[in-house]
Amino acid sequence: MDTPAQHYRSSQRAMPRTPPEPVYPAEASVRRVRHNGEIRWNGGFIYVSQALAGEPVAALETEDGQWTLSFHAHPLGIIDTRRMKLVRRIGGEKCHLCIRFKVLPIYRLDSSFSLAVVSCNAGDWRNRR
């Protein structure tokens, strides 16, 4: 039986040294995430994610006056300007899954997915639906 190492070939495509900068719309308010995971917003700070430290994120104002925050094409949430917090939402609902969880789809039930939490930094293991 062969091993994977016997079949490995390095890629002919060159990996870029740094990923390309995201292209945001001209009307977007672009902020660079600080080393501690925060962005400066209206004279204060809003925590986004320390994983995005050094990366540019875009805030776009919606028709109803809210600000949505995104990284590339990935929505991160809505900026609550009153409490100066980023509210994470999924499909218009507040996200109740802790962002520390790694959630994987298991099987499809009608139009919704059944989810299982496979790991958590806090050591909390649960099944969620």
Structure report:
Helices cover 3% and strands 43% of the residues. It is built from one helix and twelve strands. Strand 6 and strand 7 form a beta hairpin. The longest helix has 4 residues, at 4-7. It is elongated. It starts with a helix and ends with a strand.
Helicity level: under 10%
- Poorly predicted runs are 95-129
How many alpha or pi helices? 1
Order of helices and strands: HEEEEEEEEEEEE
Biggest sheet strand line-up: 1-4-5-6-7
What fraction of residues sit in β-strands?
A: 35-45%
**What characteristic shape results from the CA principal axes?**
elongated
Biggest sheet details: 5 strands, antiparallel
Cα Rg: 19 Å
Given the helix and strand composition, which structural class is it? mainly beta
Total beta strands: 12
The termini sit apart by 41 Å
Average pLDDT over all residues = 77
